[in-house]
Design a protein that fits this description.
alpha+beta, ten-stranded antiparallel beta sheet, eight-stranded parallel beta sheet, binds alpha-D-galactopyranose, glycosidase, hydrolase, GH
Length: 725
């Protein structure tokens, strides 16, 4: 049991052995937040809610008579589970509903609650799941001026230190619009909290940036129509003294792939309010009578032992409760992707040679990237029709050939896009999102399809199913190469932009849900010009996402390092490419910290390079599944602040581990000891370093001696395997 209710105090306690989350129903029927932090057995409500007398407390009164509420509650400065709009509380509101008279006043009060022992499921919408029983608390609140209800849900996933929070809105009357609806609110004292957000750009994704939370607003958002390269919908909050191994921190992560907003506000009393949900810019969701509107879930993960433990919890949460693909805990194929090897320039013969090359380097999945369909010799045309360019390739012959060599076959798709020159556009221009009277805003020469239109969804499902039904395709790379702008939908002509973006995202989920459910044996890899849609909504459907179009391995260390704060290594598509600066050994070792594979013309590889790659394949086979796919990650060095990148990954049973260390600038002789983390101190491990053996104790406390000259980009890859007793 992880949710308790104390009847006398009207107190809720959501907890596991590591954290507690307390709130109660106060005299005014408002849910007052009390505590979120390390596990706390009991709580003194009075101690927490007594905010002192000198602040001019605002008492609530009933019927303008006496001050009836005896508690310390003051709406403008107390911590709340759900703030209000238009009241004395001037902090940003989590929810605003406009009525037909143009009033935005919104204030919800508690009505009833129920504790369930199951999780909700909804077709075409990413919701966390659990293989074991979990507690779910659903509180029903009523808007004080209208017949509108809000169901506030909390799920405790006690195995991973995570609470899920989400809301549903049901209106019993017509004529109202949701203009803001944040799934998540957390009010707490600012004290010494800082935050890390993950900003970036194409080929430069998820840079962790630590900033102080100051008074006023700090907002992170996307209005790109997808979660975006520019900002990730996740933020870590941490105390001044928190490090990788010490201190309090928590992660707020939105399970959504469209426009989002994470809003932080510190008021004059030093209250910090955190809100997270879909972006409220130009949002107007019509509330139809009796229709239930479900908003995305937010995962709140806690650590009292520093950032490494927080990341590990987040990784476990994502693997156990978000990624629903059957591949999540499985060994991934070593793939060879054609893109950086030949781009759009290929034919059947050339691809056959690539497949043969894939065989030679030890890959067991070949992926034919962009360029296999009609009119796709440049990226100006072709997206939409999705007919095989028979002059260029014989798909069946290629797939049969790959399978004859025991190599699986994968194909690239960019389902959500369309080029103007296609038949599809000629016949159905309304399938594209386009604003009339505005210059056509192309980006990478393409427009985005209107996935808020079910006809478009059906068209795409039919098209893609044709390939999956008629060809033995084992893998699909699902790309998304532009962000959304100038949107207008023929079937939702009156939808505000913010709402339309949301409907488009819901359509994207429909598409992903139907195809991934229909073809559970196909491995799907997400992609959006690299890592432009790297979020939990996508991971729900695709167990891996191409992490970035940047394949320079050194640049990749930064991107994969940043991504690792939130997302498991096994979700990060990572390949060895043709980059000239580093050795294949280094490239391979960095790719090993992701899904692992290659993206080059295999015939450019010299024999000794193939040998180098084969050695890394050997490590992959022996260590990848237990460590990278299913193990625990420890970050040892921060590449942004040191001259080293270093991580080690330990299998859950602590019998196997790998360590990768990369030196950036040339560095001369120095005493250097590289200490492992997370090993079993009682175990003895055999290394790949001349087969020398060391105890876990020694490796963690003394560390491996690397007191030597280090060249630029020199890498050290250490494997550890417990010696059988
Ligand atoms: C995007 C992807 C690449 C490749 C190209 C093909 O940029 O990220 O990996 O698939 O599209 O056009």
């Amino acid at each position: 049991m992880s949710i308790k209710f104390d009847k006398d105090k009207k107190l809720f306690h959501l907890f596991n052995k590591n954290f507690s989350y307390y709130f109660y129903i106060n005299d005014a029927n408002i849910l007052e937040h009390l505590y979120f932090g390390a596990f706390l057995k009991n709580i003194d409500i009075n101690e927490i809610t007594n905010l002192g007398d000198s602040w001019g407390r605002h008492y609530l009164t009933k019927d303008n008579k006496e001050e009836v509420y005896k508690s310390h509650f003051t709406k403008d400065m107390s911590y709340l589970e759900l703030g209000s709009f238009g009241t004395v509380d001037k902090r940003p509101a989590p929810i605003i509903i406009k009525n037909k008279n143009n009033s935005y006043y919104t204030d919800f009060k508690f009505l009833k609650f129920k504790i369930y022992h199951n999780l909700e499921e909804k077709e075409d919408f990413p919701l966390v799941f659990s293989k074991s029983k979990v507690d779910r608390l659903e509180l029903t609140l009523k808007e004080v001026t209208r017949d509108i209800y809000l169901k506030l849900n909390y799920v405790v996933l006690d195995d991973v230190n995570t609470i899920i929070r989400y809301v549903k809105i049901i209106s019993k009357e017509e004529g109202n619009f949701l203009t803001k609806v944040m799934s998540f609110e957390l009010d707490l004292a600012k004290q010494n909290y800082n935050l890390i957000h993950f900003y970036g750009d194409w080929s430069f994704e998820r840079n962790p940036e630590l900033i102080k939370i100051n008074h006023g607003y700090t907002r992170f958002s996307s209005f790109f129509g997808r979660s975006g390269h520019e900002e990730n919908p996740s933020i870590i909050y941490l105390r001044d003294d928190t490090t990788e191994d010490y201190g309090e921190c928590f992660l707020v992560n939105l399970i959504y792939s469209g426009n989002f907003l994470i809003e932080n506000y510190v008021d004059r009393y030093d209250n910090l309010r955190i809100l997270c949900g879909i972006n409220d810019e130009a949002l107007e969701i019509p509330l139809k009578k009796n229709e239930e509107i479900l908003l995305p879930q937010v995962a709140l993960t806690y650590s009292n032992n520093g950032l490494t433990a927080l990341s590990q919890s987040s990784h476990n949460f994502i693997r156990e409760h978000v990624i629903r693909s059957k591949f999540v805990h499985k060994e991934r194929p070593i793939l060879l992707n054609s893109w950086e090897g030949c781009y759009l320039d290929f034919n059947t013969q050339k691809i056959k040679r690539y497949i043969e090359g894939a065989y030679k380097v030890g890959a067991n999945l070949f992926v034919l990237d962009d360029g296999w369909f009609t009119n796709r010799n440049t990226d100006f045309n072709g997206l939409g029709d999705r007919e095989i360019e028979k002059e260029k390739i014989n798909l069946k012959e290629l797939i049969d050939y790959a399978h004859s060599l025991n190599i699986k076959f994968g194909l690239w798709f960019e389902p959500e896009m369309i080029n103007l020159g296609t038949e599809l556009y000629k016949v159905h221009p309304e399938y594209a999102l386009r604003k009339a009277g505005v210059d056509i805003g192309l980006y990478r020469h393409q427009l985005v399809l209107d996935t808020s239109n079910d006809e478009v969804i059906d068209y795409l499902i039919n098209k893609i199913s044709y390939f999956l039904d008629n060809f033995n395709i084992d893998y699909i790379k699902w790309d998304h190469n532009r962000y959304l702008a100038d949107v207008y939908s023929k079937i939702h002509p009156n939808a505000s932009e913010g709402y339309l973006y949301h409907l488009i995202t819901l359509g994207v989920y429909k598409l992903f849900n139907r195809l991934t459910k229909k073809y559970p044996d196909v491995l799907f890899e997400g992609c959006a010009s690299g890592g432009g849609r790297f979020d939990l909504g996508m991971l729900y459907y695709t167990p891996q996402i191409w992490c970035s179009d940047e394949t320079d391995p050194i640049q990749r260390t930064y991107i994969q390092y940043g991504t690792s704060f939130v997302y498991p290594l096994s979700t990060m598509g990572a390949h060895i490419s043709k980059n000239q600066i580093t050795s294949y050994k280094t490239k391979g070792e960095i790719a090993l910290l992701g899904t692992y594979g290659l993206e080059l013309d295999p015939y450019t590889l010299k024999d000794d390079e193939i040998q180098e790659i084969k050695e890394i394949n050997g490590i992959f086979k022996e260590f990848h599944l237990d460590t990278v796919v299913n193990g625990d990650l420890y970050r040892l060095y921060n590449p942004f602040t040191s001259n080293l990148f270093g991580v080690n990954v330990v299998s859950k049973d602590k019998r196997k581990a790998i360590l990768l260390l990369i030196n950036y600038r040339k560095d001369n002789n120095k005493h250097r000891y590289i200490k492992f983390k997370g090993l079993d101190e009682g175990k003895v491990y055999k290394t790949n370093l001349e087969n020398k053996c060391y105890s876990g104790d020694f490796l963690m406390k003394n560390g491996l001696n690397l007191s030597k000259w280090l060249n630029e980009f020199e890498s050290f890859f250490v494997t550890l395997k417990e010696i059988d007793k």
